[in-house]
Amino acid sequence: MVPAPRTARAVARAELTRAILDRAKAQLAEVGPAALSVRQIARDLEMASSAVYRYFPSRDALLTALIIEAYDDLGEAVEAGDATAERADLRGRWTGLARGLRGWAVAHPHEYALTYGSPVPGYAAPQDTIASAARVSTALLTLVADAHAAGRSPVATRPATEAELASIAPVRSFVVDELDEAYTVRGLMAWATLFGNVSLELFGHMYRGVLDYEAHYATLVEQLADDLGL
Length: 230
Fold this sequence. Notes:
The protein is about 65% helix and about 0% strand. By secondary structure, the protein is an all-alpha fold. The protein folds into two domains: about 1-55, Arc Repressor Mutant, subunit A, CATH 1.10.10; about 70-225, Tetracycline Repressor, domain 2 (Orthogonal Bundle), CATH 1.10.357.
């Protein structure tokens, strides 16, 4: 069925919602998420603040919308990277996934900082953010589950303790009934290493220590692929 055309009011609302979000993104770059101001956004858009609140009832609601959009954009970049290789080309998928992660983060440093930087004082992310936040980890865990199903195995990994197995039980059942123990541990290590490296780069902690971030990241990605047995 052909969807009914949107009304002029719906179009206007969507356009104004987009304008508010775009101005909020610009403000993130200027002052950071902790100083995000609905009143300033309203002034920049020549609106009454009460009008902005009809679209986003609070600063936290606006932050939540920005966070969900950032997570979804990153998830889309990672999923697109995964899809650049054939499903059976596990190493190619891993490389595409990892490049998608860094590529998006470098292009959107303020959105990355909003989602993976310091928590915003006084803000607690609601349940609404979980599905979007899980897209990257879902892509990674699906990849290692596919590797296990294909008969691959990661490099030798220390056996997990009972306490560790209990602690990672939700991850093991995230994409399959029970992901292989070694792949769960190695997958989590790879996830932390990718994000850790990207965060160190974007937050300036490798400045003058690493002269070519892209070359260093490429080496790291290849090493992790070896570690994952891809």
